[in-house]
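User: Here's a protein and a ligand (cytidine-5'-diphosphate). What would the complex look like?
Assistant: Let me lay out the input and then the predicted complex.
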Amino acid sequence: MGISPFITVAVDGGAASGKSSTSRALSARFNLMHVDTGSHYRTVTLALMQAGVSPEDSAAVETRLQAVPLGTVLEGRTARLAINSDVPADAKLRTPEINALVSPFAALPAVRRFLFDYQRSLAALARAHGFDGLIMEGRDIGSVIMPDADLRLFLEADPAARAARRVAEGGVDSIARRDQIDASRATAPLVCPPGAVRIDSTHLSLDEVVEKVAVLLEQLRAAKPTVTNS
Ligand code: CDP
């Protein structure tokens, strides 16, 4: 019997560019395990904040991370990062304090190294759980974490549209400041990876973006050989 090919999708883009809503919709439609790596950086930021460590003290960050055990909890199709078996609620990860500190922490090579192997290991987890693929969103997914992804997407929208989306979600966020830090850092900066499909969603609805990508994924699935398991 033939089963679906395993498809990997990397979704990158700036703050509030629509990565999460798009990734969740595609995850449901194509049975892909969904990973939001922004929440990984937010979870690590929360742990470091609670330990009283500041992003200016990179030595203390490195030492502290050695005592942070990582795990994964599957919530529906989304794989969530757990620290000490605890997955912080979304509301705890999207506070103004975390919005302000996450990019300075994410710019530290020690923090990126800490998450690198973990994020790379998630494709195997998706296969083990019988998903038909993996969709991972962030800033360096197509460039660093999954450079060989079957499909690389780069989502954009003009800054005013993105700020309006965040306000509509009820968030207090400095999107432009985070983008500036994320795009200018030395390690794994936010870039449009080579070969990525750019989608500007300033004038598109979520459904329109999802439809555009769904067409690409259908083509990919049709072109990729199915795996035979008999
Ligand atoms: O939801 P939003 O697009 O505003 O941000 P997010 O995806 O939750 O990411 C929060 C922050 O984590 C970003 O501003 C980056 O500083 C960092 N991040 C990163 O450095 N690399 C990733 N792969 C994902 C997020």
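Summary: The two ends are 6 Å apart (CA to CA).
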